Amino acid sequence: MHHYLTYLFLSLVTNAFFTPSHAQNLLEFKAKHSYESKANDIWGYTDENSREYAIMGLENGTTIVDVTDPNNTEELFFIEGVFSVWRDIKTFNHHAYITHDYTPDTSGFGLLIIDLNNLPNSIDTLTITQIDTFEYRRAHNIFIDENGFAYLFGSNLFNGGAIILDLNNDPKAPEYAGSYSTEYIHDGFVRGDTMWTSEINAGQFAVVDVSNKLNPSILSIQETPNRFTHNCWLSDNGKVLYTTDERPGAYVTAYDVSDLSDINELDRYQSSPGFDVIPHNVFVKGKYLYISYYKDGLIVIDASDPKSLKQIGFHDTSPQFPSGDGFQGCWGVYPYLPSGNIIASDREEGLYVFTIKNEQSINDSIIAVLSPSLTFDNSKLSYNIPKDQFGEGGNISIYNVSGKLMTSNKINEPQGSFKISGTNYNSGVYFATLVFSNTFITSKFIKINGQ
Which of helix, strand or coil describes residue 299? Predict the structure, then answer.
């Protein structure tokens, strides 16, 4: 399947892109575990002996897989659970905390806690349904911050906002610390005393001061482009927030949040424009974004310049599904294992394990491919491809800002041009993609009436 890139800049730019068959891709596939039950979210854990594990939710329970050696992975434990499409997992102090959302009877069955101290030999589990005086049944997501506070989002309590639990005194007996109920929260991120909420129904993220967890206060609110804010993740330096909107053809968006009184959008990334692929979750590690992108699989973005998001790797985890609308494919990704290996979950295919190739070879490859050009001037679109890269021909396609295909032209020579004119081309923003020898470049141009 082809993956098209859209970069929204203030000026015309050209960027390289690698298709699945291109030799240079940051991700290298190592292993896969398939299951009879469909998978949902995934998290990782490393024990005191540096052994690494994947903890993945399934519709019928939770699986723990030893992924220390990507060439010799092993499922160690399966914890059966009530049927649920949604499970979410986080770890703290050698324990895993697992939520599930709606079940067949819609009531839910509490918070699963797994004691991981004795891995890989054994585990212990318990389920809690009572938090302080509240009967807890279910939640859509969970986040645990660096200070040992867990935030349960989208639960049966507090308008589906956030329940805040203190895990420090006894990891098996979370203590109620506070709540937030202004909006339903689908997912969230917390660092220090600041909670970043993905308020999917309101189509926005909120920035919330949780220094007083019994009385959180809103610092700022920002709408997201497709008004269906699914998840968010903060950059390591705390200056940029990345969000996903879980709608067909939606964006992964970068925001400058260094001044909460003046939040600004920096850039957007969209996989396969015109094919209505849905982004799910974005995670940040260093300069890279790791995105579970449903039918387009796992995508890696270089965000070293958040004003210029560039794709540098991906793996199509469900090749049987062409790019398009739908919730099949890659659900979650965990890029934080100390080894640098990446684990991901796919709804239909199960658990994936990837390693990261040498970054310098990827960077050198990107520089090498940037030499072709695609430019626009006075209604003329021109291209220039070095003869040694041209291969057996290529194709130029033009899309409007909504992703609609305007025209597609086969090219048989490494240099050429053609007119952009006619009643179909009203004033506005368009994107041209040039495909040749398994390589993409893309440019944005602005058409003005009279040109």
Answer: strand
> Is 188 within 8 Å of 196 (Cβ atoms)?
yes
Mean pLDDT of 128-154: 96
What is the distance between the alpha carbons of residues 183 and 128, in angstroms, rounded to a whole number?
25
Taking the C-alpha atoms of residue 350 and residue 39, their distance in angstroms, rounded to an integer, is 6
Q: Band the pLDDT of 444: cuts 50, 70, 90.
A: low
Contact yes or no for 157/198 (Cβ under 8 A): no
3-state helix, strand, coil in the chain (%, to 5): 5, 50, 45
Assigned token pair, 370:
């940037």
Q: Which of 3.90.1150.10, 2.40.110.10, 3.40.50.300, 2.130.10.10 would CATH assign to domain 25-357?
A: 2.130.10.10
Per-residue buried b or exposed e for 18-42, using 16+ beta carbons within 10 Å of the residue's own CB: beeeeebbbbeebbebebeebbbbb
* 8 A C-beta contact, residue 431 and residue 444: yes
Residue 123 CB coordination number (10 Å): 16
30: left (phi over 0), alpha (psi -120 to 50) or beta: alpha
Q: What are the backbone angles phi and psi of residue 246, rounded to the nearest 5°?
A: -85, 65
* Tens digits of residue pLDDT in 57-92: 999 999 999 999 999 999 999 999 999 999 999 999
Structure-token pair, residue 361: 């070879």
pTM value is: 0.78
Give the whole-angstrom CA distance, residue 364 versus residue 362.
5
What number of H helices and E strands is found in the chain?
2, 39
Give domain 371-447's CATH number out of 3.40.30.10, 3.20.20.70, 2.60.40.3080, 1.10.287.130. 2.60.40.3080
- How far apart are alpha carbons 242 and 232 in whole angstroms? 5
Question: Cβ neighbours of residue 29 under 8 Å, at least 6 residues apart?
Answer: 315, 352, 353, 354
Residue 10 per-residue DSSP state: S
Rg (CA), the chain: 23
Q: Interior CA angle at 213 toward 193 and 259, to 5°?
A: 35
DSSP, collapsed to helix, strand or coil, labels residue 166 as: strand
User: CA–CA separation, 65 vs 77, rounded Å?
Assistant: 7
In a 3-state reduction of DSSP, which class is residue 51? coil
pLDDT of 5 higher than 70 = no
